[in-house]
From TrEMBL:
The lineage of its organism: Bacteria, Pseudomonadati, Pseudomonadota, Alphaproteobacteria, Hyphomicrobiales. The chain crosses the membrane at residues 50-71, 78-97, 109-128. InterPro entries: DoxX (IPR032808), DoxX-like_oxidoreductase (IPR051907). Its main location: membrane. It comes from Methylorubrum extorquens (strain DSM 6343 / CIP 106787 / DM4). Belongs to the DoxX family. GO terms for cellular component: plasma membrane. It is a multi-pass membrane protein. The keyword Transmembrane applies. Pfam families: DoxX. Keywords: Cell membrane, Membrane, Transmembrane, Transmembrane helix. The keyword Membrane applies. This is DoxX family protein.
Amino acid sequence: MTDTRTAPYAALLLRLTLGGLFLAHAGLKLFVFTPAGTAAFFGSLGLPPAFGYGVIAAEAVGGLALILGLYARFVALALVPILIGAIVTVHGANGFFAQNPGGGWELAGFWAVMLLVQAGLGDGAYALRRA
């Protein structure tokens, strides 16, 4: 049975954590890899380089939206394809464990599942705009 007194705060904690992770990854692509470097990496994978810019934007805007609680259910679902793409194009061939050379798909898979959990739980406490 779900504890309706604490579930909104659990959803809030998950929402803040997921949003923070997306902002951190957007920051990594902006300030460490650089937008041009990110686009070049996407191109090296056989994807359109412009996808790199789109992923940076989606991670930044999506992360901020999750933290603020702006339509968190929909934002969480919209971000799942980024992680599936990371698994399919980069991490899947490296095996399961994140410690494998090149990083396995363990963390990206877990992150995608947590986004689905967020979508199922809803916005949680202190959301600015509920879906």
